[in-house]
Give the backbone structure.
Amino acid sequence: MSEETFYVTTPIYYVNDVPHIGHVYTTVAADVIARYMRSLGKPVIFLTGTDEHGQKVEQAARERGLSPQEHCDEMVVRFQQLWRRFNISNDDFIRTTEDRHTAVVKHFLNELHSRGDIYRSTYDGWYCIPDERFWTEKDLAGGKCPDCGREVVQIEEANYFFRMSKYQDWLLSYIEDNPDFIRPDSRRNEMLGFLRRPLEDLCISRPKSRLHWGVEIPFDTDYVTYVWFDALINYVTAPGFTTNEDRFQSFWKNCTHLIGKDILTTHTIYWPTMLRGIDLAPPRRVFAHGWWTVEGRKMSKSIGNVVEPNLLLDEYGADSIRYFILREVPFGLDGDFSHAALVGRINSDLANDLGNLLQRSLGMLDRYRSGSVPASPGDGALGDLTRGLIDHAARTVDEVHGHMEQLAFDRALKSVWDFIGGANKYIDSAAPWTLLKEGKESKLDVVLYCLFETIRQVAVMICPFMPETGHRMFRQLGIADRKELHQISSLKPWGALPGGTRTFRGPALFPRIEHLPEIAMGVGEPADGEKGEGESMPEDEKNRTKARRQTDAHDDLITIEEFAKVQLVAGKVLEAEKVEKSKKLLRLLVDTGEERQLVAGIAEHYDPEDLVGKVIAVVVNLQPATLMGVESRGMLLAAEDKNGIHVLTFREDVEPGTRIK
Ligand code: ME8
């Protein structure tokens, strides 16, 4: 166990943005590494937040008739709520409009000014209004903004500048001497290349005649601070720079910034030189991950393919998405989000490999040992097969650790899944059913114990990635209250699971998904009347989408026998209530001849009280599913049109359980 601290940050997201899968990616990655480090016993700070100053915020607030602060206070909630739904365990959430932050920004400005590193001069050059960035003539790409490709305007105005150029040589040697500072290597090389050209000074002010919404420059109140200069400082504000020096010093030296590759220059050129200017060391590491596209295309509002994370959560739940985004693509490379790939991972990795290991093991323990884990076997009782499994466990713990230190999330998960595969093979080879038949009771005990210690080790290792699943597994293993058995630090030496633990069989962790859900349809097609940034959908993609829709609508005729497979009955609603923390879901208790719990996405259309006593139509032979942690055994029927959702009800008081044909 190490007392070494760990500090991880995400970018602070623009408060105006609608959170999407890209924001989810960085935040989930930071959450996973924070949870992993806590599980090792390290003191951790995990910081996320919002970037709230600047022209775009001022403008959006004006358009809504609100003050910029009121606008920010409303918008920030979308991020905070989404992070709760994704089980993000941030220790702090910083907003750049908070006093604790603006005070530190002013401290930076005063320090740099008094040291002569901030000076006033006239800026004569190009400016990208939407990006709020100055560019020199040689920066421009074909006369346009090199970052966003939009028009730039020429301006001449007096401003304040940070002497960034002074630190060029220092920064170059710092990056050369510290190969782990910028990760991955491709990004490090990119920045070394960037630094081969002369570094300009950085314009860090905006005159109030153009922009009010920012941190006022303390030594000239006609100006506010450039948003990026303000925003980067959040990373030292939160752990206590100038307010809690001890805490700040102990965490800052172990800071990892997770960012997307879009904001590499600000984090690895501006930021370390700003820190150097006031004698602070750079963060330990800046890791720039890759870019997500959706169904093969750039995410764009005009294409209409921005993946709305709340809809994904309703459909798949937090853990499946968390698993998918970190397993599918090596951290650092670009990735593509597609529903088909996500459903594929859920079915093969989660439902099949992991789900089956747990279900078949719990089933055997129930049948052979009434759900009680046998005592931990002594060393002498272990055969080669079991020794192989135990070695595999130890190897996996080490591999996962090595990968996590490098933020190689996909490899860490692959190691755990190799181990899960090993455990499934162990069952097949050890064949507990044969041991039972042959009366080899003590051998059977060894196999069952080792299987359950294996499952505990798997649960501990996947818990940072899939916290709900990890905790469900702990409950099923009967160790929900034994927090010390949930920690990575409890995996070595092997065998911490106590004999005599009583397990519980629950519903499948991840029910298989047989069809692509409705929200998967139509993704990638331009919204009516809109063209996607000059691109059009490739012909073969159009045809595939069309074919899929036609099949759904008309061609897929079924026989009466096939229809009869769906068991539809009348059910009387006994209870209805909102599912905690969910906007859309209601939990219903329905009498369908037996009491049955359903979860339905109708909370935005029905008051729970209005449903009680109604007789509705229910599919009762649907595989159970768990939504927001609540099990649903069946599905009610409803129609959705432009006015909302209408639950199908009977006018007459039909006897509950009556078959609908
Ligand atoms: O840049 N793929 O905020 P922002 C992967 N406020 N990651 C993506 C992504 C995509 N398609 N789209 C966004 C800002 N991201 C500044 C940051 S920090 C001091 C100030 C993620 O709201 C990725 O982490 O534009 C990227 O760096 C960040 O969102 C940009 O968020």
Remarks:
- The two ends are 63 Å apart (CA to CA).
- The pocket of ME8 is lined by residues 11-14, 17, 22-23, 25-26, 51, 231-232, 259-260, 262-263, 291-292, 299 (CB under 6 Å).
- The first strand starts at residue 6 and ends at 14.
- The chain has three domains: 6-289, 340-490, 563-660.
